[in-house]
Design a protein that fits this description.
alpha/beta; Rossmann fold; 25% strand; seven-stranded mixed sheet; 149 residues
Length: 149
C-alpha cells in the first residue's frame, strides 16, 4: 500500500511549491521521480530547479542528461523510474502509472483550474479503490499546508 498525498494549490503556483517539497525529500535521502504532463513542462521544470534560488539548486536530471540512475531527482513525462525512486510526484495532470512500487505518491494540482481539480478527484477515487492510503492537503491563507482528509 502506497501513501498518496494530494496537494491542492490555491495560493502559490507549482513553481513556488515543488522545489521545497523536493528539498524535503532529499533531506530524507529519498530518491524522487517527477512526472509532468508534457515534455515541454519537463524542460521548464529542469530550468526551474537549476535557478529557483540564487544560493542553491536541486540536483536532478532528465533523459537528455544521461546517467539517469545516478540522479536523486529525475524529471520525466512518462511512467519510467530510471533512478529507482521511492517517491513519485505527479504534476500538470500527469497520468499516474501504477503507484504500488512506490513508498509515496504526491499529486500537486492547481485549485484554480477546474479540469485539474476534476482530474485530481478521479485519481483520488481510483487510488482509494485500489487500497492506497490517501491524504488531502490544502494551502491556508498564510501559505502553510493543512490536512483536510
Amino acid at each position: 500500500m502506497t501513501e498518496v498525498l494530494f496537494y491542492h494549490l490555491t495560493l502559490k503556483p507549482l513553481e513556488d511549491v515543488l522545489p521545497g517539497l523536493l528539498e524535503t525529500c532529499l533531506q530524507r535521502d529519498w530518491r524522487v521521480v517527477v512526472q509532468a504532463g508534457s515534455a515541454e513542462r519537463v524542460t521548464a521544470l529542469d530550468s526551474l530547479l537549476w535557478s529557483y534560488r540564487d544560493d542553491s539548486f536541486l540536483p536532478h536530471g532528465t533523459a537528455n542528461d544521461g546517467e539517469a540512475d545516478r540522479q536523486p531527482v529525475f524529471l520525466t513525462d512518462g511512467p519510467d523510474n530510471p533512478n529507482g525512486a521511492s517517491v513519485r510526484f505527479l504534476v500538470d495532470r500527469a497520468t499516474a502509472p501504477d503507484l504500488s512500487p512506490y513508498t509515496r505518491g504526491v499529486f500537486l494540482f492547481d485549485g484554480n483550474d477546474e479540469a485539474a481539480v476534476s482530474d485530481a478527484r478521479q485519481q483520488w477515487k481510483a487510488l482509494k479503490a485500489a487500497g492506497h492510503a490517501l491524504t488531502y492537503w490544502q494551502q491556508t491563507d498564510d501559505g502553510r499546508w493543512q490536512k483536510k482528509a
